[in-house]
Amino acid sequence: MNFGIVVFPGTNCDRDCYYVIEDILNQPVRFIWHKENNLKGIDCVVLPGGFSYGDYLRSGAIARFSPIMSSVKEFADRGGLVIGICNGFQILTEAELLPGALGRNKGLRFICKYVNLIIERNDTPFTSEFKKGEIVRMPIAHNEGNYYIDDLSKVEKQIVLKYYGENPNGSLANIAGIVNEKGNVFGLMPHPERCSEKILGSEDGLRIFKSIVRSL
Amino acid sequence: MRTREELQRISMTVEEYELAKSILGREPNDLELGMIAVMWSEHCGYKHSKKTLKIFPTTGPHVLQGPGENAGVIKLDEELALAMKMESHNHPSAIEPYQGAATGVGGIVRDILAMGARPIALLDSLRFGLLNNSRTRYLFAGVVSGIAGYGNCIGVPTIGGELAFEKPYTENPLVNVMCIGLLKGKPKSGRAVGAGNSLVLVGASTGRDGIHGATFASLELTSDSIERRPAVQAGDPFMEKLLIEAVLEALEKSDAIIGIQDMGAAGITSSSAEMAGRGGVGVEIEVTKVPQREKGMTPEEIMLSESQERMLLCVEKGREDEIRPIFEKWGLNFAIIGKVIEENVIRIKENGVVVGELPIDLLTEKVPAYDLVTKEPKNLKELQVIKEMLKIQNYGEVILRLLGSPNCSASNWVYEQYDHMVETNTVSIGTGASILRVKGKPYLLGVTTDGEGRYCYLDPYIGGMLAVAESARNLICIGAEPLAITDCLNFGNPEDPEIAWYFVETVKGMSDCAKRLNIPVISGNVSFYNESEEYTVYPTPVVGMVGKIESVESICTPEFKEEGDTIYVLGNPGNLGGSLFMEEVLGEVRGKPSFDLELEVKLEDLLLKAIKGGLIKSAQDVSRGGLAIALAECSIWGNLGVDIDMTTEKSPEELLFGEAQPVVIITVDPDREKKVEDFFKEIPIKKIGKVTGNNFVIKINNNKIVDLEIEPLKREWRDGIERWMK
Prior knowledge:
Number of helices of chain B: 27
Strand order of the largest sheet of chain A: 2-1-3-4-11-10-9-6-7
Largest sheet of chain A: 9 strands, mixed
Largest sheet of chain B: 7 strands, mixed
Largest interface: A-B, 32 and 32 residues
Oligomer: heterodimer
């Protein structure tokens, strides 16, 4: 399984994802600068978290225009796996690879903490290592995680992860992660790369990366 | 000739002006005078602190870089070194809390970057007035969101620090930010050498922001200070993130960079003069080559601007194009603005015409260093006496009240706004010293900041010792061996003999303790003039300390682990002098704090050995709030109760809420009681009770004086800050 991690100016979780994929999972991985357009040999594209372009206009709004994003779109259309974490999720909605939008947290503050999540679907390439209905713990760290869509019925079947218990950001229907209709593009607010080792407090996140590896 | 008023605006005295003139041998022009004023400001020149700071111990076999550079550096192992530094941004934060705090983060991060290190963590030591004051809440919320806004964006985790809320900080909050970073091989230096080599300005463009910020920081705050808001810079964390990546990439791919320097207070003036001073050379700068954000800037504005996110590089002549593409890739300016010259002067040109020229040493070594005039405050001896003590009726209520005080309570409201996990190294925060792992290494790092203004106010020598001792003890309690200190010394106006006395005594205390504990001070910062019309801040030294934990197995944490474990107290608890109890319950800041340095040395040595040997299950330092609060915290964090049974000749108030140091609570497996008592026999050790699955119960001399359920303890502790900030 070849992973490619896209680096935009302002991305800051790129090296964390790299570490998990290379050092913990021993899978081949390379960084892809946002001005490149070559995804040759890549099986899974990771859009990591951070503050692409400082999030100055709106999270993800400028990054979607980076040259790499048209390649990512083609790649996704061909069925390639794409996972967007936090800012990566925001970029995927801005680029219309995923439906809906992510607004400011309801408390208008940045929130960094562990939350409980419930696995709504385990029939995706990203969640096969979980049981349906399982409760897991992962950290969030964002300003804009308040998921919104005009018509919830459009995405109800695409919900993969929901906040369980407390809804930290006001997200519609407690949505924490969704896939596209085809199920090959996944966006989530929690950071699986931050909970992939016992020493960091949880290994639940590693199961997402393992699911991806298993899917091939 | 300049008028006194004209000089006052730039914080210079007539005497200083005359001195500068005589060194120069002529009248400086406006540009030159502006440059002299910022470099001679307290903020840049340390003219009131230089002599006193010389007493700090600064060396050790593991010290690769002591004070004098952008940051201090210690060796961690054969491959890795750690850079550390703390700095204040008090005045800007008092005027514009968000930007003041944000740019404080930006500046300290660039100091670490200038050593060639990747910043890996930030800590913040914050002091405000009381939260019942609406302006305090505005300042507090603004500072926290400024730190969050900047730190989160640049992807450096904010993993710790401390908080205190006391009246003297009402108008002049303290915002001290510490950064640590990791580097491989030899640290970089902020040094310019080799005539002909290029001076390259990288990063953001230069605007009119922050002009005379350094002189502003060297004045007391007054009601007019708000008018100095333009002297506060605006931060752009996105630009800083690009700068971090570009600089680290350039250093990795090329050795053409000879020297590297943060551009902070006093902008191009200080960075170029300092680089030249360290290298024993001169510099020539062409101001029109500086990328400018605004049209029509004068040479003085360009030379004094404190626009953020800029750094100055000294690059080998002819090799500029090896690194230019890296900065351009990251979308940053890369401007050759001048060159190194042999003559020891800083020469400023505008379109090739010399508009100013000053000897380097006039801006560096020849900055005046004043002897402080000191006088012990008259009322101090009287303050150190505790008059008659109010008898407490309900001890449980007092415990709940102290736990719910923002000075003791949980700081989740603060640190959940900080990204404290990015970089995926954060192992533990929020309970004592923070722990970071180092990827690929068996060892871990412990980091802490400490410093109690109240203690220093009542006894600066002891308070200074305690700031160092408490940091070290906090590290020992998590199983870390202390390695080095960075500090930030926050005081009022040093020209006031009483303040100067506090400063000198505090530094003596810190220095004596650091020497005895064998921990060098490798970097730091002094912030004077922290006073307003109504208040002078408590003399507040903040100590930042880093330690090394051998392995994951040697990590110790403070929370109670298991029902039935035996609780011991090491040291002699007692003494209400300077305690939080005195302040919060009796409304008095009084008494004399007490500290036993020789006991500290023995206790730390034994405790670290016991932790490494796996002899004990938890360790918790007793400080703010005393024994009762330390026990309550261990209960809350471990979700377990206690059954404490002590006999004493002291009053319950002294025993439960006194803050004598050093005192540490440990828990041990009941099978090991004998072994533990033997192990610690050289120091006072007392069995005080058991960990239980029930309530928080304290008996003193067979009287049950506290019986509380764990839930209300938790609630009070959890909501202490939040209830004010909703």
